[in-house]
Specification:
This protein is an alpha/beta fold. It has 20 helices and 10 strands. The protein has helices spanning 18-33, 68-80, 93-102, 109-127, 133-139, 156-166, 197-220, 229-247, 251-263, 282-286, 295-301, 311-329, 349-375, 385-392, 407-417, 433-449, 465-494, 498-507, 525-538, 541-621, and strands at residues 3-7, 12-16, 60-63, 84-87, 140-144, 173-176, 275-280, 305-307, 423-429, 455-460. The strands form 3 sheets. A 4-stranded parallel beta sheet has the order 4-3-5-6. It starts with a strand and ends with a helix.
């Protein structure tokens, strides 16, 4: 036993060296248990697999996971920049059964659907097309997004590898965006998947164009007079955009060329249609197949207009997270050396990051509006994530992450307060930890606070379609009643009849166009349209102009009244934050000064070393 003795004048007290004792005990136990020898640990040989640049021409990238429109257009975009790409079909029941056959037990059904969809495709290549498993592994790669967090989404890639191995495709490459960051192989050869601006530009264009086409089709289809016209127009528009993406020509021109297809659809928007906002777990509310029992089409068959969540909104949520977290951690500065910390950003690093994410938000919103107006999607506004966080924070801490986080709560509150939808439907897989906890727990407090809220939480499990549909139909009955009552109220409040509105629309086809969007006032489109055209029916031109001037004057007075208060508030905030701002700026200036000192000292040291080296070389030469 290792000990030291310290004398206090009377007696010596032994002091035990704890570290040495623990080390000795550890070595003895390892020897006793027979684990004192070096062992080789198992390593996942399917992890971090990619392909080299020389293999690129022989490799086919398989993609899937978003809507059919997104996957289709992204396929065209990646083909346009030189990749062989094939999108997978929407997962069906066969994919679900295949996923359960080869996957682990207890997974959520998106795992079974997505993993099984890939396995089923590869099995078809082997059993129907006659390819060997070795050829499939050699010539195909699956590209998907990876993530982590409190959801089982973080385990998807592990499930892919386990199922692929058990299905006979050991070594099949599943690539995650986050795993290909280095773009270099262990051999040093450049990766065949080049994650450069050209690659991401093709992805973003496909996402935005897919969002716009989806939004237009869901906006028009419930009102079409001839069933199937909207689907035909959408299919043709997707082909036009696909060709543009594949040929690397203007996607905006392609969307512009698609506009007449939607413009020609005959509709009747005077009928009250309940608007149903679909929220919930990202995959469950996005997929368009058996994964959510064809939810969107089922709602339309029941007479609803679906207000879907676009992928661009998810991008804005990610941007909001980056901005919020940076502002939350900026006081830590150099001490923040965590994985997502600010310690390595240097002087003014936090401010630069905030400005960069703010610029990213402006870019996403601006690009979306350009795409939307090119195709004829007017009056569509992406959600304000700051407002969503503000509305939800009373009920749900915005720092709790997983799934859609606080967005589900914020969207429900905004749908009720701002008349965005007659009914909100939250769909998620059975046992989805982040979403089920929100929808079935927190949302109940909101429905109690806002009586009359129509909120329908539903879960998918791969089976149980009848019960799922039955529950949705019960809530749809309430939504239909709410839509009819709202439309009748709009007619009364605006002093017109349905026949008058229909006659006006017949005489003024601009207002009955499929692409026309009236100003938002009510939940439903028909009620908004009544409010828009009623002044043309009940008032003269002079009265309408007088009303506009009165409204403009009222708005101006309101702004003028608020302006001094806003200025005072801004000044107070600036004065209150001045000490903190000064301290941060001072700290950044000190950091800059220290960095310059270190750089200068390094330069002097290098010069000194170089001089000594030259002296030694000269002496050796002599």
């Amino acid at each position: 036993m290792s000990m030291q003795s310290i004398s206090n004048g009377k007696k010596s007290l032994p002091i035990l060296d704890i570290d040495a004792e623990l080390k000795r005990f550890e070595e003895e136990e390892k020897k006793r248990l027979g684990i004192d020898k070096e062992t080789q640990h198992w390593v996942e040989d399917m992890a971090n697999l990619t392909f080299t640049k020389s293999e690129k021409a022989k490799i086919t990238l398989l993609i899937g996971g978003l809507t059919l429109a997104h996957d289709y257009l992204i396929e065209g975009g990646l083909r346009g920049i030189g990749y062989n790409v094939q999108m997978l079909d929407a997962p069906n029941v066969n994919a679900y059964q295949t996923g359960k056959e080869y996957g682990n037990r207890g997974q959520c059904n998106p795992t079974y659907f997505t993993v099984g969809n890939l396995i089923a495709f590869l099995i078809a290549l082997r059993d129907k097309n006659g390819m060997t498993a070795e050829d499939i592994v050699k010539h195909y790669v699956f590209l998907t997004a990876g993530a982590c967090g409190p959801c089982r989404f973080g385990m998807y890639v592990t499930e892919y590898r386990k199922a692929l191995r058990d299905a006979g495709f050991d070594g099949f490459r599943v690539m995650l965006f986050q795993q290909t960051g280095g773009l270099k192989q262990a051999t040093g050869e450049a990766s065949g998947l080049e994650l450069n601006p050209t690659f991401f530009s093709a992805i973003v264009k496909g996402i935005l164009a897919g969002d716009v086409l989806n939004a237009i089709s869901y906006r028009i289809r419930p009102y079409e007079l001839n069933v199937g016209d909207t689907d035909k127009a959408t299919a043709e528009a997707k082909k036009i955009c696909y060709r543009a993406m594949e040929n690397r020509s203007s996607i905006l021109k392609a969307l512009w060329d698609s506009k007449p297809l939607f413009q020609s659809i005959k509709i009747d928007k005077t009928k009250p249609v309940p608007k149903v906002a679909i929220i919930g777990e990202f995959w469950a509310m996005t997929t368009e197949g058996d994964g959510n029992y064809g939810l969107q089409r089922f709602l339309e068959q029941e007479g609803a207009e679906c207000d879907i969540q676009l992928v661009a909104a998810w991008l804005l949520y990610n941007i909001w997270e980056a901005k919020h977290d940076t502002q939350d951690r900026e006081a830590l500065r150099g001490a923040d050396n965590a994985k997502y910390g600010l310690g390595d950003l240097g002087a003014f690093g936090a401010a630069k990051r905030v400005l960069s994410v703010m610029g990213a938000e402006v870019a996403v919103r601006g690009a979306f509006q350009v795409f939307a107006h090119a195709a004829g999607l007017y009056g569509y506004h992406l959600p304000d994530m700051n407002k969503v966080a503000e509305f939800s924070h009373e009920y749900y801490n915005v720092n709790l992450r997983g799934g859609e986080g606080h967005m589900e709560v914020g969207k429900l509150v905004m749908n009720v307060i701002q008349n965005k939808a007659h009914m909100t439907l939250s769909v998620k897989p059975f046992g989805c930890m982040p979403s089920a906890g929100v929808s079935d727990g927190v949302q109940s407090a909101i429905t109690e606070k806002f009586p009359g809220t129509i909120f329908c939480p539903v879960e998918t499990s791969g089976d149980g379609k009848v019960n799922f549909y039955s529950r949705v139909q019960m809530y749809m009955f309430k939504a239909k009643q709410a839509a009819v009552a709202e439309y009748d109220r709009a007619l009364i409040e605006n002093g017109v009849t349905k026949e008058q509105v229909q006659a006006f629309l017949a005489a003024n086809p601009r207002y009955s166009s499929p692409l026309h969007k009236p100003p938002h006032l009510y939940c439903g489109y028909a009620a908004d349209l009544v409010a828009e055209v009623a002044p043309f029916i009940t008032q003269t031109r002079g009265q309408r102009w007088k009303g506009k001037l009165v409204k403009l004057l009222s708005t101006s007075k309101s702004v003028a009244a608020k302006t001094p208060h806003m200025v005072v508030t801004l000044m107070k905030t600036a004065v209150q934050e001045a000490p903190n701002t000064y301290a941060k700026v001072k700290e950044d200036i000190i950091i800059i000064a220290e960095e310059r000192k270190r750089a200068k000292a390094k330069t002097i040291l290098e010069s000194s070393r170089k001089g000594k080296t030259q002296e030694v070389t000269a002496d050796a030469a002599e």
